[in-house]
Design a protein that fits this description.
Length: 235
């Protein structure tokens, strides 16, 4: 017999009349495979917090991102937010994974096939297209800079790069070209995020073509026909 599932939603009004959801009262009774019941938080609450935290960072910078600011933006109480993220460091790590996860979804859409079925050139080309045509986000830039002093945040970024455009293990020309394409695409993205003035459209498109050319497979050299042996017979 399948046991039922209930969702219970209880809203608490603050003194100013703005509804805030407290996760201590906002829960779901879920049937486990064992037949026991378990209370679990709604998955959307976590995503709601992460999206709110990104908005705070986008507007005011990463230094303004506190648990209180994220909770206020998400319409939650601070204890409600701390149900998911006990510390600011835990929140920062979750945001980094959230941003990288969304970025990888864009990369997969650009690739158009499963990652394991693609070639190294296809992955690098998808990375270049997604990066140079993507909108530069202040929040993404802030977390990229923050990663320079946080090994945990940096590891999330490094794992993504290892899947898409890893560092070349040897100075082989084709691998160097793919890595140069990644560095150039990242540089153009960074320039767009911090530019004093936008590039002329024709200049940007020319740069994109030059960068994309680095990801093209090297031309195949036609196999040489073996030379005919010279006859040693005397006439």
């Amino acid at each position: 017999m399948v046991k039922p599932r209930w969702d219970l939603h209880i809203f608490v009004l603050t003194t100013v009349g703005r509804p805030r959801v407290s996760p201590w009262l906002h829960f779901r009774l879920v049937t486990l495979p064992s037949g026991w019941y378990s209370y679990s938080m709604r998955p959307s609450s976590r995503t709601q917090i992460l999206q709110a935290a990104v908005r705070v960072t986008e507007r005011h910078g990463i230094t303004a991102l506190t648990l209180e600011a994220a909770a206020e933006e998400a319409g939650l109480t601070k204890p409600g937010l701390m149900y998911h993220f006990r510390t600011r460091d835990a929140l920062l790590l979750a945001i980094q994974r959230h941003i990288i996860g969304e970025w990888e979804q864009h990369l997969l859409m650009e690739l158009g096939k499963p990652l394991e079925e693609s070639t190294v050139q296809e992955r690098a080309a998808a990375y270049v297209r997604s990066t140079v045509h993507g909108l530069a986000s202040k929040a993404e830039l802030a977390f990229m800079v923050e990663s320079a002093t946080s090994p945990e945040l940096a590891q999330v970024w490094n794992d993504l790069m290892a899947r898409w455009v890893p560092q070349p293990p040897a100075p082989e020309p084709a691998q160097l070209d793919l890595f140069l394409a990644r560095l150039a695409a990242d540089g153009l993205w960074l320039f767009e995020a911090t530019r004093p003035a936008p590039l002329a459209p024709e200049v940007k498109q020319a740069l994109i073509r030059r960068i994309a050319a680095l990801t093209e497979p090297p031309p195949r050299t036609p196999a040489r026909r073996p030379a005919r042996p010279m006859s040693t017979r005397k006439s």
